[in-house]
Amino acid sequence: MRSRIFDFAWALWTALFAPVIPLLWLAGSPPRLVRKLTRIWARGVLVELAWIVGLNYVEQGRGHIPHEPCLIICNHQSTWETLAALVLFPDVAIIAKRELLRIPVLGWFLRRSPMIIIDRSDGAAALRTMIEEGAAALADGRSVLIFPEGTRRCPSEPIQFKRGVDLLYKRLGAPALPVVVDSGKFWGVASRRKRRGTITVTYLSLIPAGLSLADFARHGEQQMQAVHAAASLVE
Question: What top-level branch of life does the organism fall under (predicted)?
């Protein structure tokens, strides 16, 4: 019941932003203002999630976040981290699938934030888009966030990077910040149900720029898997 009430409140909160779209469009859809409103929207969703469902979050190791923009690599277990990233990393450019643009209201804001939207069915073009728009975001002082597993995975599955994340790291030439979440224990991949509890967001040691493709992938996977495995043992 709490999950259903939250879904209704989420839809209502999102609908409140619809009247703002024509005003932003007339103003030329300024990216900074659009991103600010998107963060307000995401923060509101997290507040609703905490009040209605009782699902909160805590952060560990926030001191590892660098002052300069970087490539953020985060495991993907639920919708939660996509929402939370907008709050945890102000002005972040999230690499997101094109299907998200079909969501009413939210799709408009994501396109103009702007996020890095890719078509996952076209591997070469998707990688080119990630590299080109990722470089532009870094030059603009924005970090780039990617879910290296490519899609949401169950908490019981090990962390494994998809091919292309290592190439993105190499071409961007920026350090990478590994982030591990255990959101799947409370908001599953195939379920609309949300459970009461506390999601842990863990920031790990920065991976320096300039490693080989193999060293980057091995270091990132091992570092994230160690935290992921430990979290999986705690219910």
Answer: Bacteria
Of 167, 175, 177, 173, which Cα lies nearest the Cα of 202? 177
- As a residue count, the chain comes to 235
The model's pTM is 0.92
How far apart are the two ends of the chain, measured CA to CA in Å?
22
Range(s) of the domain holding residue 228: 2-232
Q: What is the CATH number of the domain that holds 83?
A: 3.40.1130
How many structural domains is the chain composed of? Answer: 1
Note the pLDDT tens digit of each residue in 66-115. Answer: 999 999 999 999 999 999 999 999 899 999 888 888 888 888 998 888 89
Residues 17 and 15: their CA atoms lie apart, in Å, by 5
The DSSP secondary structure of 49-80, one letter per residue, reads: IIIII-EEEEEE-GGGS-SS--EEEE---SSH
